[in-house]
User: Fold this.
Amino acid sequence: MKKTIFAITAFAIITNSCSELQSIAGDIATEVLTGGTDGSTTPALTNTDVISGLKEALTVGIKNSVNLTSVENGFFKNARIKLPFPEDAQKVKQHAIKLGMENQVNKFEQTLNRSAEEACKEATPIFVNAIKNMSIEDGFTILKGQDNAATDFLRRSTEVELRKAFRPKAQNAIETVSLTKYWEPLASTYNATTLLTGNEKVNTDLSDYVTSKAIDGLFIMVADEEKKIRKDPAARVTDILQKVFSSLDQ
Assistant:
């Protein structure tokens, strides 16, 4: 009799244990499928989803940034990205102003920015191709990173190639807006005085300067766009952006 009672008790314990294990297994499966334990039905994000979302965010950011910077005054009237008189040529600016050439200096600064604005018209395919070809091994880390994590990753991964491709565009833009017409008289006038002053001559080639500043300005704007997408649901203009970046709202 005791054996029978023991067997019945053991069976009940095993049965209850199996039910509990099945329940736990069911909960785990639900969590894997839905991405959480709150009863939601949102599919869990895959690494493919995250990478696609990050690429889409950068593509949107680049397009919006180019649209903002490639128009007249896109750089010149934006204090955050405006190209100033080259820092290593401030002595040229000061010397020119002393000679009564302030108007020429102002015109130079304006046309310097015009060259960046003109160059940006050609920037979209360069940046978009870089985005499409990039490979992100740890998409979730970037997604959960700082507000400009994707922008920083893109810059680290592509800046060398972008600079090589962008410099000819900047040079062409400089020629298109006749920037050297304003720069060379200023620089040449200053360089002529170095024979007497002993100061170093300045480099009259502006391509590297415009290239660096234009790329810097674009990435500042891209970072702004990335932050919008991360923080503002209204900026998530595609399904993949909504799916990926809505996970940051939780």
About this structure: Residues 45-249 form one domain.
